[in-house]
């Protein structure tokens, strides 16, 4: 089904890969193996995160379990290019996260969270070109689709299409308040408000006047109840406004963000806001988790000092402040609104963060959802190689610029 250019797809098809991914991710955060469904770039980010956590002497465990109540709450929005479709699939998961140093637990929380995975699959019956660069899912070597189908040059493993896709290219965690707890709290508050109004409304007339006691009590209960619930309503209304300011971090710029991103769509019709947000957080995570961001091909700057203490980053919202296209070079300046776990002075704190990030790409090549910097093809000699931390083709030594193929970070503050 297509609504205003956005495909709303049947969630059932994604249910199984989603369930598996949650299981694999839980295993990974429990000290286990890399999620098999994770794309190469997501694997890279997860590896960097584990290295960072370990280098700080910390141990992070994160157990994810499907909630008992909701089993069919996955919905999908899909965006696609010529070869792939990416579906944004969400569900509710119980997450228990504990962080500590060796046996010493410093932080533990259990929450019902929203876990969103970006699941990539082949578009319909599309057969991608055998020369498409792709990493070997077994040994990680840079290769091509055709080579992997014939057997990986390095480890010899042969793959069929169904083993290569679907893949999860990214995931996000969103926190929400416990609804049952909230409704209990509301009922308690309403009762308190009503009692606070009914008691004086009954007592005062009874003390002042000495006749028609029963009628006065009845009137007191009714008017007190009405005034109490009106006051409760005002309180809730005020809270909603206060909460809107808090939850809508970056929400006021949604329209201008969409307008600016739409400029890119004129050059590249397959570009989309969802894709860009996904890319921005993926790049941010890689830069922040890595020991030296400037060594990465996807980052042309240093990380701000305040990012050094971040051990986990999740995106809440993205604002695009400017988008300038000159020639085929597109420079976008963004603000990322994030929920991050910080390790500061021996303590773990969950913080709302704001970072500015400049991103650049050359628009001459359209969006490639299947692109991975772990397997790029040299523009000069055509060889496949892993570009995550190289600046030249290892075969013909032609300088390689990742921004010719994908978005890179040019500045962060
Ligand atoms: Zn291999
Ligand atoms: Zn080359």
Characterization of the model:
This protein is an alpha+beta fold and 413 residues long. It has two domains: 2-176 and 250-412, no CATH class; 179-247, no CATH class. Helix content is 34%, strand content 31%. The protein is built from eight helices and 15 strands. The strands form four sheets. Strands 1, 2, 3, 4, 5, 6 and 9 form a seven-stranded antiparallel β-sheet that branches. It has a four-stranded antiparallel β-sheet with strand order 10-11-12-15. It has a two-stranded antiparallel ribbon with strand order 7-8. Mean pLDDT is 85; it is low at 1-8. Bound molecules: zinc ion (2 copies). The site of one zinc ion has 8 residues, from loops.
Give me a quick take on this structure:
The chain is α+β, with helices and mostly antiparallel strands and 413 residues long. The chain is 34% helix and 31% strand. It has 2 domains: 2-176 and 250-412, no CATH class; 179-247, no CATH class.
């Amino acid at each position: 089904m297509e609504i205003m250019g956005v495909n709303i797809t049947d969630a059932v098809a994604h249910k199984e890969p989603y369930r598996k991914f949650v299981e694999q991710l839980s295993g990974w955060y429990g000290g286990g193996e890399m999620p098999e469904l994770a794309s190469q770039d997501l694997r890279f980010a997860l590896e960097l995160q584990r290295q960072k956590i370990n280098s700080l002497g910390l141990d992070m465990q994160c157990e994810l379990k499907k909630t008992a109540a909701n089993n069919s709450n996955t919905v999908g929005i899909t965006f696609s290019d010529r070869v792939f479709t990416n579906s944004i699939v969400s569900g509710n998961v119980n997450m228990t996260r504990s962080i500590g140093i060796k046996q010493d637990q410093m932080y533990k929380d259990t929450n019902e969270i929203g876990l969103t995975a970006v699941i990539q699959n082949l578009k319909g019956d599309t057969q991608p070109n055998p020369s498409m660069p792709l990493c070997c899912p077994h040994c990680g070597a840079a290769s091509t689709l055709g080579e992997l189908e014939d057997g990986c040059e390095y480890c010899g493993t042969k793959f069929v299409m169904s083993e290569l896709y679907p893949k999860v290219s990214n995931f996000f965690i969103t926190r929400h308040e416990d609804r049952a707890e909230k409704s209990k709290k509301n009922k308690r508050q309403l009762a308190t408000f009503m009692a606070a109004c009914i008691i004086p409304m009954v007592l005062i007339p009874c003390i002042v006047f000495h006749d028609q006691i029963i009628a006065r009590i009845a009137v007191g209960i009714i008017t007190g109840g009405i005034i109490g619930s009106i006051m409760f309503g005002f309180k809730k209304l005020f809270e909603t406004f206060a909460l809107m300011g808090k939850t809508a971090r970056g929400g006021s710029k949604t329209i201008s963000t969409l307008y600016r991103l739409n400029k890119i769509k004129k050059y590249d019709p397959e570009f989309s806001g969802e894709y860009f947000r996904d890319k921005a957080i993926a790049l941010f995570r890689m830069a922040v988790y890595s020991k030296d961001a400037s060594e990465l091909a996807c980052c042309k700057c240093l990380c701000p000092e305040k990012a050094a203490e971040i051990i986990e980053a999740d995106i809440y919202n993205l604002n695009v402040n400017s988008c300038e296209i000159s020639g085929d070079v597109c420079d976008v300046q963004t603000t990322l609104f994030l929920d991050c776990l910080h390790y500061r002075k021996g303590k773990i704190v969950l913080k709302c963060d704001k970072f500015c990030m400049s991103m650049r790409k050359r628009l001459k090549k359209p969006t490639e959802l299947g692109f991975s910097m772990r397997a790029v093809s040299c523009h000069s000699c055509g060889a496949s190689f892993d570009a995550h931390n190289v600046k030249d083709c290892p075969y013909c030594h032609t300088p390689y610029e990742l921004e010719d193929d994908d978005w890179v970070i040019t500045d962060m503050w």
